[in-house]
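Journal club side-thread
Mid-discussion, someone asked how the predicted structure for our own chain would compare to the paper's figures. Pasting it here so we can look after the session.
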Amino acid sequence: WVGKHRRELARLVIDDEIARREAEPHLLLAGDIKEARGGLRSLDTIRWLDALEGNPPDERALGLRKRLFDLRSALHLVVGRATEVPELSMCTPAGKFLGVATYDYRAALISVRSEVERLLDQRFDEVRAASPEPRRVAPQPDSPVLRSAIDIALGDEAVSDPDLRPSWSEADRRALLWLMTDPAGRRGFEHLQRTGWVAGFLAEWEWITGVPHVVPFHLHPVDVHSLRTHDELLKLDQWRDLDRFDREVLRWGSLFHDIGKGHGGDHATKGGPIVDRLGTRLRWPPALTREVRRLVTDHLALADITLGNDMRDRSVVARACARFGDRAHVRRLRLLTEADSRATGDASTWTPWRASLIDAGAEAISQGFGASGSTPVPLSATLAEFSGVDRDRVVAHLGELDEGYRDRVPTDAIAAHLRLLAHDDPEAIRAEVVEMRGGVATVAVVAPDRVGLLAELTGRASVVGLDIVAANLFTRRDGIAVDIFDLAVVRGDLGQAVEEWIAALGSPQPPGGLAEAVAVQAHAYRHEAGEMEVSVRARTIGVKREVRVRAPDRRGLLFSVANALGGLDLSIDTVRVDTRAGIAHQVVVCTGNAPWLVVEDAVRSAVT
């Protein structure tokens, strides 16, 4: 019976595989190991087709089956039940069982399933022939290697590639875009990946291929997410209103917006130099390279600024204008932000409420540019006007600090720092109230930096009954600390408590020292708040030590951290404090020789 119906059975098996691909256009990080594309059922397709044709089992398929079963078995063992969907929370213990990190476990799953699909395409013409129809007419490149890839994408026989090196003419660049982004073209691009051409001539893309995200809202590997971002971009209503240059910037920018991932550190910042290299190699016009680089380095900034600030604040808008530079860049960022969010695959990353906040913020920034469409007034001129300090001194002050200072400190707070720096006594601790709003006082502080300074500032705040809601602390290259504190009180008058704190700065310590006085306040607060669950993580970054603390908030918490670090002779460079829903998040970067394990133990002991 099988002999008589071999062709019909093969067709059923192939149709089943094609249906899997049509149902799931892209490989998922948490796709069903058994039923989804590239899974065990796809491997069954290879086994059944070989059996129907009377062929011995494919050794490559057997190896892939073993690798997939190993990954699946680890998942079953750590979860304690048969499950086929490797959710992110399950991948950490499964990876630990196999002796690898969460990232490596997810990367192994993607790698095996991608190899399964490539094997199916190589072995069986019927599966490969089921590629989607082109959405756009295929371009005609100048370079033979790209013409060959387009022929393969369109189902024609591949010709030999007499010269693998492309000329990167404008026609070649259009061809590469088509191969990467058109559903039909991607088949030709995968051929270029299999032959090693992409690794040789577009190594930056090969670096992110199959790289897993390790956050739950990203459902695809980095390369797939980037391709999906491009697809989402073309679906936006505003796309049809863009001119040719904007479209080209956005298309390349969407493909390479995450190109810095996997290189350590902030991927948006890392992506800038990578775009410069790509622009040189692909022979982009200088204006295109410049705008794609800006898009990549700023692709998270619009959402961060508009969702994390009051966009009615003119100083916030002024800083955003200074960062983004012109209205056209903001318009492109708005479109990329939406496409990037939608391409995660998680509907919660782009909601009507989120969209309304970003739209309102982008509109406020655009209006801030005025009629010219570009930054109307340099930041230094604005600060000179706000502070009453000479513009040369403003420029000198900003030059003493990293860009993070300008990004995180409001314009009116920088102006307060400038006024305090002009004080007659440069050795004193000086403070100025920037504003009091909504039960929170924002205070600017300037002082010569020294070990124990943060402990004194936070300790005296605790003694007078002030809670530190948020803090941003910076140290100038000349050794002057410039800090911003957001302070609140549980009981009593906020204004009076702030006045007492400012008056006490630099004065003799109370009997028994600050630590004893803070302990009294902390005990009462802890009694109200209950027991704490504390997370402390320390690590070494070059010559720096970074300490991250997450704990239910209590009075004196930051003082405890600062006191512990000062006891190890660590000089604090920057501090970020954020308190949300009663949970304090602190990130402290300091300089010193103490090993990170000693730092971690000391801080944990101090805060618990």
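Post-session note: The CA atoms of residues 431 and 502 lie 6 Å apart.
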